[in-house]
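Interim report, section 4.2 (structural modelling).
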Amino acid sequence: MKIPVIVIGGPTASGKTQLAIEWALKLNGEIVSCDSRQIYKYMDIGTAKPTLEERRLIPHHLIDIIYPDEVMSAGEFQKLARKCIEEIYARGKIPLLVGGTGLYIRAVIRDIDFPPKVDEKIREMIKEKIKEKGLSNVYRELLEVDPVTASKISPNDEIRITRALEVYYATGKPISFYRRGIDIDYPKYDIVYFVLNPPRDLLYKRIEERVDKMIQLGLIEETKHILNMGYSPGIPSLQTLGYREIIKYLQGMYDLKSAIEEIKKETRRYAKRQLTWFRNEIRVKLISYEEVKNAFCKIARYRQ
RNA sequence: GGGGACGUAGCCAAGCGGAUUAAGGCGGCGGAUUGCAAAUCCGCUAUUCCUCGGUUCGAAUCCGGGCGUCCCCU
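Predicted structure of the assembly:
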């Protein structure tokens, strides 16, 4: 028998946290956060983590699991989340997978096998090569060793070109080899996948309010604090929306007002990207706030 | 009342008679996304240049009237 898993996705500021807690209480569930930023310690305000009270009310997993200078990946996350889900279920509770990182959710619930871990040195080597020979030449190289993947990637997409090439060098096989036979079904668990989909104007309003609130709560101080601990402003975790702009403000590249405007704008765009992802994810149920109650009926059978 | 400047997409803005089928930026919208994903990347977004008329083979570009905005003088 497959383990039942309730998935709640949705764009940032759509109210996932609150809904998840509400449902977890009703279902006797526990929450597995599926958020690529809330995994970081110290980054609390800017990632809108659930409060300590909320976490006391319902156990939340996979929050605060690594330090800002550590790196998480979809593959690593997949393992961690699956372990959580199994443990929760073994405890006689219902796992709720909730968050805004669509790729992480997909990695957990679909049957995706990621290529084996690649030595950091290989990536460094490729980055060096890009610096020396230029991205277009490195892209041409990918075109030769893995034309299938290359044709799907933009010649400007440095991150994906690097990845495809590093997998090729590390394993001798094109990354497209590892993508074959991916099942688009949900073979792993018994999934009910909801996506919160508020009207665009309401969502944007909520984003504005949330960003203002983050500033009030001390996003600037939090950023300073992380920097003071010795973390470099250049590390991937600090490229996170919000922290990135505040760092620029602290460096004098923005005045505060512009920084805040920039965060709002970028958050809107981020929400849009999330919606694109969720909209095109298979077998999801997009629900408005009005439909939330009705949606719960579909999962009420799990109530104990 | 007199003089001057200007009026190009939601906003900013280039073009100043024919390589324009009207640059570019911002914003907006859509999409991709398989071990960095709150990252990264891609696409779309003015059949028309305030308006009416004129000059011309040809006008956003020149001329005139109208409307509007701004500045200066009185």
